[in-house]
Structures are given as C-alpha cells and as structure tokens.
Specification:
mainly alpha, five-stranded parallel sheet, about 60% helix
Length: about 475
C-alpha cells in the first residue's frame, strides 16, 4: 500500500475511534474504492454502517469482508445474524448466518447463545435447550448459557439438578456481579414455575441486590415525578392528520400483557407484528429539548421526524399491512406519537398492579428500569405511569383503548372483539389461535404467548402476599 493509501487508512481509523460515524464511513468508502482488497476495512465499514442504521449496506460490507478472507469469519457471520434478526426481522437468514459461524468455529459460544436465543424467539424450546447445552459443553463456566438453559426449562415439577447447578454457581468465588444477577434471576424463574414460592422470593431479593450492585442503578422517585410533570406540562397541541397510514402503538407498563396483545393482533390477516421497535426511543434521543421541544416544533421538523420513523418502519413492513409498534415505555411519548401521527390508535395494556409488580421484580431487566429492583420503587413508577396515562386519555379520549390483561384472559373473545372494533378491523377466528402465529417473539413472555390464552398468571401475587404486605404495607384492592 502506498503512502497515500496508508494515510487514508489511518485517517479512517482515527475517525472511527473518535466516534465520528458519518465521516468515518465516508473515509472508509474512499479508501476501499482505491484499495478494495482490505477485509478488515470492509469489516469496519460494516460495523459503522450498522451503527448508522444502514443495515442493508452493512450486510454488503460484511459480505465483502468474508469474500476477501477476513480473519475470524465466525464473528462476521455473527454480526450479520444479529442485523438480520434484530433489525430486519429475517430469522431464517439469521439462522443460516449462525450456522455458517459454527461451521467456521464449532465451539463459538457467542454464536451458540444467539442461536439458542433465535430458537427461543421462534418458540422452538428443544432446539434452544440443545444450543445452550452445546454452549455449556464448550465452556462449562459460561453463566449466561447456564442462565438461559434454566430460562427455557421452567416446569411445574422443579428440575432439582438444574436448580442445584444454579445454586452451586452462585456459591462460586470470583463470580462477577452481572453473572450473579443472571444466574440468580434464572433460579428465581425456575423456583417460581416449580411452585417453590418462598424460595423464589428470597432468590429474587438476592438477584435484585446483585443486579443493583453490578449496575449501580438507582431509582430516583423525585426525578421520576419531575419527568412526568414536564411531559404533562409540555403536551403538544392537536394536529391534523398527514394522510399516511399510522402504525398501531401498544404501550403500558412492562409485563402488563403487551406481548399477548401484539400476538393476538399479529394473527389478523391485515396486521403485522412489528415487535419492540426502537424508532420512537431513537427519535427521542435525537430531538433537542425533549419533551418541551415537541410542542414548539415547526412543520418542517415534524415532517423530518415522521420521515425518520417511516423509513425505519419500511425496513420490516410488508406492503398493505398495519404494523404494530410494541414498546411499553412509549407511554412516555404519546404526545410525540400523536404529533407524528395525529390519527394513530394507541392500545394501553393494564394488569392487576400486584401481579405486575411481582412480574417486574422477578425478571432481570435493563439498568434503565432501576425501579424494578425494589418493590416500593416499582409501585411508585406504576403510580407515575397511571398518572401520565390519565393525562393522555384526557387529551386523546377517542384514540386510546385500555385493555385489561385479566379481562382478556378470562374472556378472550369478548376482549379481542372490542380491541379489533376499536382498530376498525373485522373479526377473524385466527386471532385467538396460538398455533397460527409463526413469527418471532422477542420478549420475556416468549413461552407464555405461544400457549392458548390462560388465566394462570392472574392472581399470581397471592403466592407472595406475605412478602408484598411486608414490602408495600397496604396492598389496596
């Protein structure tokens, strides 16, 4: 490589390290036009295009890296698989990439973990278990593989051997905080499913403390209240519809039944389940002065925001279909949603408060959801959620439909008929047929929503009434 091309390479690498993504992309593209046989640079270009959200061209760059003999092809196949699965909703293609990664390196644990997760998304329990066991064979000390194996092994009769393996892992010296949390929450789920309720709650207490120590996450109740106050005070004015079709937005508390609702809708011939899309949260991150800036935005800015959302949606949407955007925490952004899509229909999922709190407390959630680490904090956030949703319903009374989880599982047809009527959709028997849904499910509820609708999770809190009473005091009604 001559001196000029070496300077181009160094310049592109410096921009990449500095996080200047658009400039780094342009620099690598210039370099590769002059010197195309640089597999590592193709890899870096793929990585940068993925960061920029240019997923199809990221796949092209990664393919060039493979074509030109990049070192560690298994990692490139893994990266392609993640894009295909998570961003482009192409699980079959993602599986082929993971199988190619494992053909290159049969004991590649990251690919085995992703393969197991992909099988989970598709409801293939035995295949997921096999992938996680294979990962544990390759690395018996991989705590994530052990945790995921436990998560797909819930049964009314406790697998004592697997539970003992989890307990033994928690006693191991040198376990990181994150690993302790992963294993701890896996034990919680296994014990809860096996009816060992007192043990499950104590395991949840320990797992949440491990997660708090590992992440440093803290929930600030006063800050949460100020955020909700700001959102309410800066609610944007009503706008006229823009004429384009709007997605169906599903919002609410996490663990309130949103995945079940999306699966019911996704079985309708006119609806495509979009899953937990990042489009609204990503737009919020890009907006100046949020939430106050939304109310003061001009039409050109709003058109640009709407274009960003629609371009993102177009990567997964099938022609002529209504797409669901199921991000429970988008309840914070209903004002933005109604600014982008004034005629958008919003489905708000609710659940018995105590069932909701237990479900949050028993899951290993993102550090962004620090409220879930403590039952009192979770109860406080639940109250803020209710306060904001009452505000939105007062602003948009005809466009928000509240669907109660317990009513849905007790009378599925009646609740589903009301839901479809709200959305202007005709009744179809398939919406209640759990076996008719073959698409991926990316949620902690992956196994529950693939079963026929049942009431087993309604009133689950009663198994933990003594602990809830201790933590919360008055349990209300």
């Amino acid at each position: 490589m001559d001196a000029q091309r070496e300077r181009l390479l160094q310049h592109a690498a410096a921009l990449r390290r500095a996080g200047r993504v658009p400039e780094a992309i342009a620099a690598y593209e210039e370099l590769l036009r002059a010197e195309p046989d640089l597999p590592d640079s193709w890899y870096n270009l793929g990585f940068l295009r993925r960061q920029a959200g240019d997923y199809d061209r990221a796949l092209e760059a990664y393919a060039e890296a493979l074509k030109r003999g990049v070192r560690g092809p298994e990692e490139v196949h893994l990266n392609r698989a993640v894009i295909l699965s998570d961003q482009l909703a192409r699980p079959d293609a993602a599986q082929r990439e993971l199988e190619a990664a494992l053909a290159a390196k049969p004991d590649y644990v990251p690919a085995l973990l992703n393969l197991g997760n992909l099988h989970e998304d598709m409801g293939k329990r035995a295949e997921a278990q096999a992938a996680y066991r294979r990962a544990l064979s390759a690395d018996p000390d991989d705590m994530l593989a052990l945790s995921r194996l436990a998560a797909v092994s819930h049964a009314p009769e406790l697998d004592e051997a697997l539970a003992d393996r989890l307990r033994a892992a928690l006693r191991k010296p040198g376990l990181s905080g994150a690993e302790r949390a992963d294993v701890g929450f896996a034990l919680v789920g296994l014990l809860d499913a096996g009816g060992r309720f007192d043990e499950a709650f104590e395991a949840a207490r320990a797992a949440n403390e491990a997660s708090r120590l590992a992440s440093g996450a803290r929930y600030d109740r006063e800050a949460a209240e100020r955020l909700i106050d700001r959102i309410i005070e800066s609610a944007p004015p009503p706008r006229l519809p823009d004429g384009g079709a709007a997605p169906i937005f599903i919002v609410g508390m996490f663990r309130s039944g949103s995945t079940l609702v999306e699966q019911i809708l996704g079985r309708h011939s006119r609806v495509q389940a979009g899953g937990e899309l990042e489009l609204v949260p990503e737009l919020v991150r890009r907006l100046p002065s949020y939430p106050e800036g939304v109310a003061n935005a001009d039409e050109a800015a709003i058109a640009a925001w709407r274009r960003f959302y629609r371009e993102g949606l177009s990567r997964i949407a099938r022609p002529g279909m209504l797409v669901t955007d199921k991000r429970p925490d988008n309840f914070l952004h209903v004002g933005l949603i109604k600014t982008l899509f004034p005629d958008a229909k919003i489905v708000h999922t609710r659940r018995n408060r105590l069932d909701n709190l237990v479900s949050l407390y028993f899951l290993h959630l993102s550090p962004d959801m620090a409220y879930a680490l403590d039952l009192r904090d979770a109860a406080h956030w639940h109250g803020q959620h209710e306060r904001l949703m009452e505000h939105w319903k007062a602003l948009y009374p005809g466009d928000i439909f509240t669907l109660d989880y317990d009513e849905l599982v007790a009378s599925p047809r009646a609740a589903a008929e009301r839901l479809l009527g709200f959305l202007g959709l005709d009744w179809e028997e398939a919406v209640l047929d759990a076996g008719s849904s073959g698409g991926p499910v990316k949620t902690a509820s992956v196994w529950q929503v693939r079963e026929p609708v049942h009431t087993r999770s309604s009133g689950r809190w009663r198994h933990y009434s003594a602990q809830l009473q201790e933590a919360l005091g008055d349990l209300g009604d």
